[in-house]
Write a structure and sequence with these properties.
Blueprint (H helix, E strand, L loop, with lengths): L1 H23 L2 H31 L5 H31 L2
C-alpha cells in the first residue's frame, strides 16, 4: 500500500514540477508579475515615506528615530559595561 502511494506521489510531484518550471519561465507571466512587483515596491516606499513624514509632523518618533535611539542606547550600555570592568579591575588591585 505504502509503495503504491509513494509511486503515485512521486509521479505527481515530477509532473507538477515540470509543468510549473515551464509556466514560471514563460515571459507572458514573468513580465507582468515583475512589473506588478516593481509597482508594489514603489507604492510601499511611498507609503513608508508618507507615514514617516506624517509621524514626524505630529512629533512622534518614526521607526528610523527609534532605531537610532536604540543604537545609541546600546553604545552607551557598552561603554558603561567597559567602565564598570575598568573600575572593578582598579578596585581589585588595591590592597
Amino acid at each position: 500500500m505504502w509503495n503504491a502511494w509513494k509511486k503515485a506521489f512521486d509521479a505527481w510531484e515530477d509532473a507538477s514540477a515540470r509543468y510549473l518550471e515551464t509556466v514560471l519561465k514563460n515571459r507572458l507571466l514573468l513580465t507582468p508579475a515583475g512589473a506588478a512587483l516593481a509597482q508594489l515596491t514603489k507604492t510601499k516606499a511611498l507609503v513608508d515615506k508618507t507615514l514617516a513624514t506624517s509621524l514626524g509632523a505630529l512629533g512622534l518618533a518614526t521607526k528610523r528615530d527609534q532605531e537610532r535611539t536604540l543604537h545609541l542606547l546600546n553604545r552607551l550600555e557598552s561603554r558603561l559595561l567597559d567602565l564598570e570592568e575598568r573600575l572593578d579591575e582598579r578596585t581589585d588591585k588595591k590592597p
